[in-house]
Amino acid sequence: KAASSSPEVEYCFKNVNNSCIKVSRSLGVRAAMYVILMSITIITICGNLIVVISITHFRQLHSPNNFLVCSLATVDFSLGICVLPFAIMRTVETCWYLGPVFCQLLLCTDNLLSYASIFHLCFIAIDRYYAVCNPLTYTTKITFRVVYIFIGISWILPTVFSFGLIYTKANVQGIEDLVVILSCEGGCILMFNKLWAVLASAVFYIPCVIMISIYAKIFTVAKRQARMIKNMEEKISMEERKSRENQKREQKAAKTLGIIVGVFLLCWLPYFIDAPIDVYINFATPTVVFDSFAWFGYANSAFNPLIYAFFYPWFRKALKLLITCKILSSSITTFYPNDSH
Q1: Tell me, what CATH number does 56's domain have?
Q2: Where does the chain cross the membrane (predicted)?
Q3: Is residue 108 part of a domain?
Q4: What are phi and psi of 187, to 5 degrees?
Q5: How many other CB atoms are there within 10 angstroms of residue 269's CB atom?
Q6: Is the dihedral of CA 65, 48, 326, 256 positive or negative?
């Protein structure tokens, strides 16, 4: 009777020393993973592109708040174009075939866009705070100039932080021996020492606490305003009625953006809980678990345009104009009166 042979170990690079081990998956599992992850990527790219085109094309959507939303959509669109296609390959094939230089660039870009999302959402929360809680001073406090500064900070600080941290190798200072032991040809992972694991997590948690505090205040004020409007509805003049309607629109926008923040936290919290813990257990989190957390975070960029489609009539109208190619007409640069809300 012939002796049974153990399954052959498959490597990312057959003829290279210190090659990473390739996880063996059936064709059906790999095909299913490609379909799911490519669907997330396509929704991310197409959905956020519609948001960017809609806000930049239609003059009625040119407002400080919408420009912040447009910049956030640009972050998500960039993630779909620059990161997700390569992340699909790395996740499904469990190997990195594009070299260490491109790996480092991808990791920097991935971090930059993740942190840029957090900064954008934080500034959007500040914008909504003034719109709902201080409506009389909103137009003087949140101007286009202020929003451009918000957008600049949201892009520049994450860029400096991500590229500076990774390219100076400050993130692995003191754990070089461990990095050498855990590294192999065909891998592309980002490692942090204990100090930077805590600091990098703080860049996520501090803005999150600020956002939660701001939205808690917004919804408290909005609830009080709603009661006042209900009590005064029969007594107010037409001018006051218009002002109340505007307040209701601002509250609805705040609610929608609050949902976006909530979805963002739900998507990214597992990753940012596990990432610092992983450092303290010597990077023992199984790759499949870590990749699942990362992709749950990436999926947030696909959820945002779906939320816009559900809550914003202007998004649905823009989608209709894009599908019918009517948006190409130079005469269509505005919506009907109430479509921008």
Answers
A1: 1.20.1070.10
A2: 31-54, 66-89, 101-126, 146-166, 202-222, 253-273, 293-315
A3: yes
A4: -105, 155
A5: 16
A6: negative
Distance from CA of residue 139 to its chain's centroid?
27
Task: Go through the chain and tell me how many residues it has.
Answer: 341
Residue 94 lies in a domain: yes
Cα 241 from chain centroid (whole Å): 37
Total domains present in the chain: 1
Tokens for 231, please give them. Answer: 């009590």
Contact 306, 51 (CB under 8 A): no
pLDDT per residue as tens, the chain (341 positions): 444 444 678 889 888 888 998 988 899 999 999 999 999 999 999 999 999 998 998 888 899 989 999 999 999 999 999 999 999 999 999 999 999 999 999 999 999 999 999 999 999 989 988 988 888 888 899 999 999 999 999 999 999 999 999 999 999 998 888 888 888 899 998 889 999 999 999 999 999 999 989 988 888 887 776 666 566 555 555 555 555 566 666 666 677 778 888 899 999 999 999 989 998 888 888 888 999 999 999 999 999 888 888 887 878 887 788 777 776 665 556 554 444 44
Say if 16 falls within a structural domain: no
Beta bridge partners of 185: 19
- Please, which contacts does 68-72 make with residues 24 or more away whose CB atoms are closer than 8 Å? 68/120, 68/123, 68/124, 68/127, 68/147, 68/150, 68/151, 69/124, 69/257, 71/120, 71/151, 71/154, 71/155, 72/117, 72/120, 72/121, 72/124, 72/304
pTM above 0.85, yes or no: yes
Which of 243, 247, 294 minimizes the C-alpha distance to 268? 294
Q: Which domain holds residue 38?
A: 27-229+244-328
Q: Would you say 122 and 51 are in contact if contact means Cβ atoms under 8 Å apart?
A: no
Query: Does residue 36 fall inside a structural domain?
Result: yes
* Cβ count near 258 (within 10 Å): 21
